[in-house]
Amino acid sequence: MEPQAPYPILYSFRRCPYAIRARMALYQSTITCELREVVLADKPAQMLALSPKGTVPVLQRPDGVVIEESFDIMLWALSHNDPNGWLQLDQSCLDLIERNDFEFKTHLDRYKYPNRFEGTNPIEARFQGESFLKALNLRLGSSKYLHGEKVSIADVAIAPFVRQFAHVNKDWFDQTPYTALQDWLDAFLTGPHFAPVMKKYAPWKLGDDVQIFGQGEVL
Question: pTM value?
């Protein structure tokens, strides 16, 4: 294990929806990190030593504790500092996040990357994924966000995956009847929380200068 750092070390991949939501929570909580951008085809040995499963994001806290799951990173960051109350949510939101992370992500992968899954029909995968889009659209028909009239962790945890699903075929997504969902996604992508976490970083390798991510606090 590497020597204790003055701030958390975050192994990330810019376009990964799991990494996006982790970065959003860290940025929102004003926790400064050392960001190490990962090339997924050539994962650094230092990350694999911390988390052998080899998926991003991975966060090593200053005390050496490793957090391997993106939602756990979100909870850790926002438990430290939650200036806009993103952690206020109910069981139905937690159920939505679980459905997103397991059921919807399965269909998303087969829709976006059909060649990775033998016998997959991407149109069938899209059809299966639509059931989640419909559920979100129905919920957003009665409130601006998934937990009422302000952004919550549910929106941040789910929106990066809907973004990825939509961009597989944006023309198709734009002509769907899910207008509330479309408005919600557009607000997410054009709002103040998304752009700051999508800055491009050079891929990290041992010996590189430290690349800083965040907007303030050093733990």
Answer: 0.94
